[in-house]
Amino acid sequence: MNDQETRIAELKKIVAAFRKDRGWIGESPKDIALSLVLEAAELLEHFQWKSGEEVKNEARLYGPICDELSDVLWWVLVMAEALDIDVSRAFELKTTKNNEKYPADAFKGLSNEERQRVYYRIKAKYRGGHPLAEDGEE
Hints:
2 domains, dCTP_Pyrophosphatase, nucleoside triphosphate diphosphatase activity, DCTPP
């Protein structure tokens, strides 16, 4: 399997068959969401106290990171199945929203610090405030 040849529907079928064979069905969306977050935390643990470069250069982390990332995807697919969500369509719609929310022109030519300020200003606007938005910019 590889990303260029594998469809999301195929991955959903693999997950569904594995779960069905073991009787692992019927979890609530809340429990699925908890499992997803727990797996994401296990993924995050591999990055704790390390820079991005350290993680990239540490060959021993590649396999464990792949495993945890796969676990996160697993639970995303379980949630999609439980709530009858078309992941590709949901992704397409969310990408459209993100393009509107974070227009590329708003970030072009900015330093990292300026990009962060713009990002938090936009977040504050959509959320009704954000602690990292500069005073008077919410």
